[in-house]
Backbone:
């Protein structure tokens, strides 16, 4: 451990890095060094906010700010930030410098954390760290160190003995504990313990429970540490049982653990459950039954009221099967032994899951357990989940929980999408009650905090079910306002807009239409618009934000509570914060600016919130405020200073009508040094709805998209048009929106009609590839990971999930609305590959050849079709890359090549050699 002082830093970034200077062209180097703020964290008392500032390439910094901006610190190379409950201490992982990360193996890099005392600025560094966490009350830090390789030293006097061979048997690393350091933050007093495999703090702040395991020394024990005195006591020990899972109740009254025979291989080790009453030291053992057992993956979790223990169990425990081996000469001719070593996967037509999905989910399924509950007052264990209904949603309700099952629909997922049957499971009897059949998986019901009511959306209406009476009421049947997604353009039932918070006493439920927030009384079933219809009247979408949340529990509200709403204007694309009161039909605007607002964090035990404000020309710096007065916020960071020295462009909203006369919106980003009346080369980038990015700061990264700021600063206009689709005709729908939008820019005098490029990725890649088969308005196209042939892609595999792609076409994004054999012509009509001979636009195709979403052979098909038709085409195959490029050399190379490609075709610059001559295959000497 190292101790050193940290000098408080000024709020602004150093002038040497971002000082004011004459405008310069934005370069790749500038983008690589541009810092982006990650998700901030806030102390429970709202006093301290910590955030990581991460460059696209380089070393991060942890920024520490008091919420009133009275103190600021920076931890160089700090990442993965945490703050304790009272804000007096901050924890950050200390990254190795980029050069070391690029040139050394990850296992050889130092693993350290820094603990910062925010009152004094003093830091402590802990090395060889695996994990580090604060206690829930914020008074203690536990640092778990990386394990050291432990191998039994051979006994020279008995090398040949059977006992020594047994001692030398390799121990599973997962069975070994490691050293931990416990720090009392107030005094910096420390306690070190060895061989710790699991640990858990109670919420009361009095105890730390630890499992210590060293199979080589026959040491397996449960240790309790009294936190106030840092004294430890062994309360359970065993010489031959490995201690596995651990939990302690919030009040520090109970400890639960699982344990199993240490001599049995971990994979098939049977476990039992041990419950210890800390006050009386009474132990209760729960062995597995014929139906349900405990294994290495069995989880333990006490309810917050300390009355129930939730346990994960499995139907059986067995060792991993082994392949037959040749043990004697005649075995090499034994058909059973020979065929036992076959490498075969059988795809059966009635399999619930196709083999790639089964393979992809195999490791997860090995870890699957089924939830049971132990009632601590009665010692009654009830199984809640099983193979038929495997998923129970954890909650703190005392009587019921929600359960669901996709088992009946696993086969039809392939083509129909995702559905579940929904149940209520009684925590006191274990019995299940069917509630909904074949409910869309993205429309799961919501259970009230006290499990008196259940609310759900179905076929355009919102329903409320009284659990005790079983009565279900359609709350919205007499309301003319639509509650189904008004912009839904998929070949499936339109979803709803979701639920807001319940009232904590179950007296009310809130939910949304496209614009407004509604509140309904659960007893009278009467409701009103909490936002008084102002949303639909002004086309402002209201959503509640900034509610305090309890760990593992959804936020609730109460009658008369002041709440904050975020209002997004569909007209101006800007956000504002509004004040509302639960139980009253009125809203009051609190902020007024043409910007995008994002509420990022709320203190758990204070009214402090953290939000960002951004525009295309304003970096989303952080602000803190009282939740009831967000209009008087304090700015915490000044990363917008990174724009100093650059001539930044502007973004504006553009309106036009597509080929069918439908009003469309889009974003036009003008070049940094835009001159009125001058026509510019224009790059079109799109996906679906893009106009909501009007006030979004550009993503300062190099990846699979064009960097808007880079292109704008290099003389390009960028156009982000909305696309609205007609089911069955996704390709032509996109073309109608794109061509009309580009024509609008030409009429405005902004766009040079002979210098329009188009770039899209994935779904946008498909649309861009299709567009150039139907129009010559584009002079160059870069298409990333496009589907080019829907007839072959229909039965392709999404290798990331193992799912077949059929559902995407029949019910999802690709929007055909029928199977290949039901609507073959639509698949052909919407496939670029069938019209490759029409393409007059030079095309660059990009794919990673390990694409986990779109089969990369789709790129090969398009390339070969254009090649056969004699078209201008180049194909970039990035090796071992998924759907979105991950390796920085590839991201950088693609960004450079994309820019060179557009510069050549849209600006007349010289073509690079790779574009004129290609690149021959080359193998390189492997590094030592």
Residues:
């Amino acid at each position: 451990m190292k101790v050193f002082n940290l000098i408080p830093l000024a709020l602004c970034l150093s002038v040497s890095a971002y000082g004011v200077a004459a405008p310069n062209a934005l370069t790749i180097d500038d983008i690589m060094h541009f810092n982006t703020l990650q998700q901030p964290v806030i102390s429970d008392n709202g006093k301290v906010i910590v955030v990581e500032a991460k460059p696209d390439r380089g070393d991060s910094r942890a920024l520490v700010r008091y919420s009133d901006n009275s103190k600021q610190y920076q931890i160089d190379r700090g990442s993965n930030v945490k703050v304790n409950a009272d804000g007096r201490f901050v924890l950050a992982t200390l990254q190795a410098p980029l050069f070391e990360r690029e040139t050394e193996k990850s296992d050889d890099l130092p693993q350290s954390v820094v603990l910062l005392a925010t009152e004094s600025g003093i830091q402590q560094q802990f090395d060889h760290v695996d994990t580090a966490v604060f206690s829930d009350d914020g008074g203690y830090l536990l640092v778990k160190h990386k394990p050291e390789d432990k191998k039994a030293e051979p006994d020279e006097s008995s090398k040949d003995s059977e006992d020594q061979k047994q001692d030398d048997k390799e121990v599973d690393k997962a069975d070994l504990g490691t050293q931990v350091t416990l720090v009392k933050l107030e005094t910096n007093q420390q306690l070190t313990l060895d061989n710790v495999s699991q640990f858990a703090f109670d919420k009361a702040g009095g105890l730390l429970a630890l499992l210590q395991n060293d199979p080589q020394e026959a040491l397996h024990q449960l240790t309790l540490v009294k936190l106030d005195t840092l004294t430890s006591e062994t309360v359970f020990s065993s010489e031959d049982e490995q201690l596995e899972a651990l939990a302690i109740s919030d009040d520090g009254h109970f400890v639960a653990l699982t344990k199993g025979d240490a001599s049995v291989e971990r994979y098939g080790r049977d476990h039992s459950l041990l419950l210890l009453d800390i006050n009386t030291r009474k132990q209760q053992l729960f062995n597995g039954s014929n139906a349900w057992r405990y294994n290495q993956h069995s989880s333990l979790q006490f309810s917050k009221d300390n009355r129930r223990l939730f346990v994960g169990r499995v139907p059986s425990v067995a060792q991993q099967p082994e392949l037959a081996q040749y043990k004697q000469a005649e075995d090499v001719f034994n058909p059973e032994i020979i065929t036992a070593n076959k490498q075969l996967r059988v795809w059966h037509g009635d399999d619930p899951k196709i083999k790639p999905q089964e393979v992809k989910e195999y490791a997860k399924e090995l870890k699957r357990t089924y939830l049971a509950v132990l009632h601590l007052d009665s010692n009654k264990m009830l199984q809640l989940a099983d193979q038929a209904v495997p998923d129970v949603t954890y909650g703190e309700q005392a009587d019921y929980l929600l359960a669901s099952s996709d088992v009946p629909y696993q086969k039809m997922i392939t083509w129909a999408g995702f559905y579940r049957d929904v149940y209520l499971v009684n925590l006191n009897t274990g019995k299940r009650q069917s509630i909904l059949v074949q409910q869309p998986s993205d429309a799961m019901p919501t259970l009230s905090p006290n499990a008196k009511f259940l609310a759900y959306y179905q076929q355009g209406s919102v329903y409320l079910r009284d659990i005790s009476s079983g009565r279900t009421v359609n709350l919205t049947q007499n309301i003319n306002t639509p509650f189904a997604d008004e912009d839904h353009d998929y070949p499936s039932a339109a979803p709803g807009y979701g639920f807001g918070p319940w009232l904590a006493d179950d007296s009310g439920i809130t939910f949304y239409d496209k614009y407004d927030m509604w509140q309904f009384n659960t007893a009278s079933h009467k409701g009103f618009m909490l936002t008084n219809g102002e949303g639909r009247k002004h086309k402002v979408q209201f959503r509640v934000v900034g509610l305090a949340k309890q760990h593992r529990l959804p936020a609730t509200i109460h009658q008369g509570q002041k709440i904050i709403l975020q209002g997004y204007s569909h007209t101006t694309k800007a956000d504002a914060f509004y004040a509302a009161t639960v139980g009253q039909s009125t809203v009051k605007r609190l902020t007024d600016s043409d910007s995008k607002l994002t509420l990022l964090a709320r203190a758990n035990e204070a009214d402090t919130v953290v939000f960002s404000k951004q525009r295309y020309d304003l970096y989303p710096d952080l602000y803190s405020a009282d939740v009831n007065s967000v209009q008087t916020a304090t700015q915490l960071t000044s990363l917008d200073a990174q724009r100093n020295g650059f001539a930044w462009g502007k973004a504006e909203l553009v309106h036009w009508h597509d080929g069918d006369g439908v009003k469309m919106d889009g974003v036009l980003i003008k070049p940094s040094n835009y001159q009125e009346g001058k026509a510019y080369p224009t790059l079109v980038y799109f996906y679906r709805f893009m106009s909501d990015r009007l006030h979004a700061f550009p993503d300062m990264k190099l990846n699979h998209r064009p960097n808007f700021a880079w292109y704008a600063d290099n003389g390009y206009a960028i156009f982000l048009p909305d696309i609205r689709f007609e089911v069955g005709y996704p390709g032509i729908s996109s073309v109608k929106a794109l061509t009309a939008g580009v024509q609008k820019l030409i009429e405005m005098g902004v766009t040079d009609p002979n210098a329009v490029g188009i770039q899209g990725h994935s779904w946008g890649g498909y649309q861009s590839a299709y567009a150039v088969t139907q129009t010559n308005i584009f002079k160059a196209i870069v298409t990333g990971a496009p589907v080019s042939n829907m007839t072959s892609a229909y039965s392709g595999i999404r290798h990331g999930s193992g799912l077949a792609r059929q559902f995407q076409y029949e019910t999802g994004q690709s929007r055909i609305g029928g199977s290949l054999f039901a609507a073959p012509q639509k698949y052909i009509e919407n496939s670029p590959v069938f019209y490759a001979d029409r393409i007059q636009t030079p095309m660059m195709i990009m794919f990673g050849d390990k694409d986990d979403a779109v089969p990369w052979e789709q790129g090969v098909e398009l390339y070969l079709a254009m090649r056969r038709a004699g078209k201008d085409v180049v194909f970039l195959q990035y090796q071992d890359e998924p759907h979105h490029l991950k390796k920085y050399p590839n991201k950088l190379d693609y960004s450079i090549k994309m820019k060179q490609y557009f510069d050549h075709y849209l600006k007349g610059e010289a073509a690079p050699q790779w574009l004129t001559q290609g690149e021959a295959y080359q193998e390189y000497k492997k590094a030592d």
In short: The first helix runs from residue 15 to 18. The chain has 18 helices and 55 strands.
